[in-house]
Amino acid sequence: MVAVNELQEMYENMVTARQYEERLQEEYMAGKQPAFDISAGPIPGELHLAAGHEAAGAGVCQHLRDDDTVTAPHRPHHIAIAKGVDLKRMTAEIFGRESGLSGGKGGHMHLFDPDVNFACSGIIAEGCPPAVGAGLAAKKRNTDSVAVAFLGEGAIDQGAFLESLNLASVQNLPVVFVVEDNDWAISMPKERVTDVENGAQRADGFGLQGMRVDADDAVAVSEAAREAVGRARDGNGPTLLEVQVHRRMGHFMGDPESYRPDEDKDAAEQRDSIERLESDLQAHGVDDETIDDLRSRAHDRVEEAIEWAKDQPEPESEDAYEDVFVNPPSGVTDNEPSTADTGGDD
Amino acid sequence: MSGTDDSVAVETSDRWPDDVDEDVGVVVNWFVAEGGQVEEGDSICEFQVEKVSVDVPAPATGTLAEIAIGEDEEFERGDRLALIRPA
Amino acid sequence: MAQQEKDDASGQQAGRSLTMSRAMVEAIAHEMRADDEVFYMGEDVADYGGIFDSTEGLLEEFGRDRIMDVPISETAYLGAAVGAAQEGMRPIAELMFVDFFGVAMDQIYNQMAKNTYMSGGSVNVPMVLTAAVGGTYNDAAQHSQTLYGTFAHLPGMKVVVPSTAYDAKGLMHNAIRDDDPVVYMFHKRLMGIGWLPAPDGPKTGVPEDDYTIPFGSADVKREGADVTVVTLGLHVHRALEAAADLADDGIDIEVVDLRTLVPLDTDTIRDSVAKTGHLVVVDEDYRSYGVTGEIIASVAEAGLDDLEAVERVALPDVPIPYARPMEDEVVPGTEDIAAAVRAARGDE
Question: pTM to 2 decimals?
């Protein structure tokens, strides 16, 4: 059973994530009309939005503490929000501003917030091994922290994921692998790239627990995650949890999705986990006014973060030369000499 | 109209993508220069609306007599992009 | 200018010009029609047509057996390309971004690149590894690298970097027909994709018939008397832009487009330096232990007396940052090239 206050917490979290993606979409597309130019507008580069994935982030992270580690893939915003990443500084990072989490060096696929042990990798499945490492550290230090690696269903064919399952299992590490199944690896439907019906079946070959939540249902995710995270925290080993989600905004902004049947997209959008959770709240006797309050609080928070981020200055160009090392060895310059000073003999 | 009576207009109405809201497109590439020979059905230019890019086939065989909308220029749905003087 | 003459001699007389992606695809389609053993594997290469249009339209003609979407399993499918090539087929396998090579590095450098040598030449690996490279659109540290030097450093791979549609087609024909592994690195910014606008220059006239451009033949894209600028990929066009600016000040630069890093056409570079005495090497890869150092060393070894001055322009030794001011800082721009040319001449 998930308590009513937990439902409300998830709901606010999910509405925040949805509102965030919708607003980022607006900001991103500004300056990219009438024809899409990926490097134009206030947010350049690729942008992978997670609308439709909210239940996975909220349902899992609800059971995590700040000292638990999360690694997220290239589609990280909803997970970051659920994990408690500083929303203003995350937004500033996405806008490429000096006050961003990484001072503008990382961008939206590379969000790092050590205060809540959150990290990303833009390379498919490559967040899995570091999550295993966080689990290893917890075990060696005898803490009860856990680590969670999020990945998409397209990542379950990748070596880094499969090797991580094995290592976590054989070492009995406190790790949960969360596969967000949105049915599409960019343009490739899952049945074209794997012969298993679902990603949770990968657990069988590695001797760890496999679970799957078949519907876009935050409550079911929360219940499954409670079990998986609890198992890890109690020292009883890793879990592979696959969660059905859906993709509302293309693989990345700029993806025309011409490969995707309209019926598929329409059907996916009918499975809105936020609407479903709203019904659950009403069934638990939460009145409309309370729901409206949760929504408007989420909207205000998103708006505030975006306005704040847009007010922040851009980094200085010379900042590019910092942070390669925390302890720069001699010979590594803080400032790259101008080409006029470099004669090929330095 | 700058073409002769038998000139054939190159335009985009029947090529406009279904699932876009915009009525403005941008020509991103011309594959034939003014004065070049074109063959009916060959792609002679490419335009983009929102995220969708579309090839425009030559409506007739002949000479590309005039390009009205150059590369990187915007145009409205229905605008004439070029004229072909049939062979 | 050299490029214009070439266009007149080849493509423009065909009356059409192509983007770099279309020229690549035309060569692949030609080779696939001619040889049933050629096939293409990659992520999102079928229905999507390649994220950077590298296979646009091929699925319709050749079907899923020959234009294969594969799982996100680079080790498996790049290794499978090695195996199929050793069986005598001619696979083309694509890395969506060259930055993903790390996932499958062993198959690339320990298998694909070494099996010929380790077998004493009794095995060969006639495959093409295509990969999208390059930055300039704020895709940050894991999606913006060129890694030219990394691939060229490891023996056993031929490394191709086209800068125009004309070159892209001829080099692709050569790559597929070559009996050795070829890494074909196409710059995203040059492909002519609507959402990633190319500079003027990569779209050129392209003959409809097949033709090959031999590997190891650098191309003088602009002839000039004062300074030799050696470069590749996107920076060929940035160097040509710099040339136009410098010409206004009476500085006449020669732009040498390497086109292939392995084999490297040192003769063309040395001939140019013998003429100008000044060498500027421009690269979008990291500065240290890379292309710039290699080119300069190859000139110095054989013709030190010809060298009056040397400059290099490359990415400083930092990962590629996301935000615009920082990415613009580290990726060499037209003005960086012009400044290096002036410095080589002792103007500053």
Answer: 0.94
